[in-house]
Amino acid sequence: MDHYRRIGALRRKITRAGLSGLVVTHLPDIRYMSGFTGSSAALAVTSRSVRLFTDGRYTAQAAEEVSAAKVEIVSGPPAVGAVQWLAAQPGATMAGFDPAWTTVAELARWKAALPSSLRRSFLAALPASLVQQLRRVKDEDEIAIMAEAALVGCRLFEHMLGFIRPGLREIEVAAELEYQARLQGADAMSFETIVASGARSALPHGRASVSPLPRKGFLTLDFGVILKGYCSDMTRTVHLGKPGKAERDTYNSVLEAQLAGVAAVTSGVTCAEVDEAARAVLRRDGLADAFSHSTGHGVGLEIHEQPRIGAGQSTRLLPGMVITIEPGVYLPGKFGIRIEDMVAVTATGGQVLTPAPKALIEL
Ligand code: ZN
Ligand code: ZN
Question: How far is the CA of 303 from the centre of ligand 2 (A)?
C-alpha cells in the first residue's frame, strides 16, 4: 500500500480546507493512512509532517507497520498527544477533526490539553471526513485484496450448498460458515452472519437463531469475511424444497432488479440513478413497498462506507469505488429474498467481484 501517496493526497485536502493540520482518530482511517493496525492510536497530519501517536504496548508493532509517519509513544491518550503536537507546530492556526468519531468527552479533554489562547478556535469539526473521501476510491492493491475476499465468500457459499439441509438450526449453518471462513484464511467475519429461513427470511437483518431450517421455504445467507483488513459482503437466497409460483415470481423480480442495478453501475452515474434502476423493477412488479432499504453501500476497510447507493444520493460513481448492489423484498409473515453482489466501478461499467450463481437454487 502506498501510504506516502495517500498522505500526499490528504495534505492537499488539508491545505485546500484552509487548515494547518488534521487529527485522525478513527482506527480504519489510521490504518488506511499509515498501515498501523493497533487498537490505540491517533494520527496528526500537517502540510509538512505526519506523526502517529500510540502507547507503549505498540512500540514494536508500530515500528514494523509504519514507515510513512514518525511514531511517538505516549503515556496518556494518543489523541491528546496528537492535538498538543499539532498546536505546537510552527504556523499552527486550526486543526480539523471528524465529529462523527469524536465524543463530547474527548473533545473536552483535547481542549483542556491546549494552551488557553487556542482553546476556543483551534479545533474545527469538519463537515465531511477528509480521509473517508480518499477511502471511497480504492487503488489496484485494494481492489485485488477485495476481489480475493469476495472469492473466499463465493467458495464459502458453494460449500454451504452441500451442507444445508432441512432440520439444521440456523446457528449451525452460521457456525459452519464461520468455521470454514477461518479455515480459508479469513481474519474474521466482516459482520454478524445473517441466516434467516422460512418466515424469518422476511427480516432484512435476521441474525441466525435456534430455529430449524424448514422443509420448504427460503433461506437467506448474508455474510462476509475480512481478508488483510478488507471486508467482503454478499447475499444469496436459496429455496429448500420446491418453490410455489409466488415464491418463484418474486425471486425473479428481485433477481431482475439486482441485475438492473449491476447493469447501471458505471463511472459518472449518480448513486441515486443506480438505486432507481433496481427500484424501478420492483415498483413495476408491485413490490416497491416491500423493498425497505437502500440498494447498496460502499465497502472496504469497513463493511459500510461511502458512498450510499440510495434515493436522493447525488454522489457520482468513480472508477475504483467498490459498492454492493443488494435489493430485497420482504413480505412479513411470508418470506423474504435478497441478492447481493460486490461490484467494482470501472471507467466503462462495473466488475462483479462475487460471481456465485444467482439463478434460484432448490435444495
Ligand atoms: Zn450483506
Ligand atoms: Zn451489504
Answer: 7
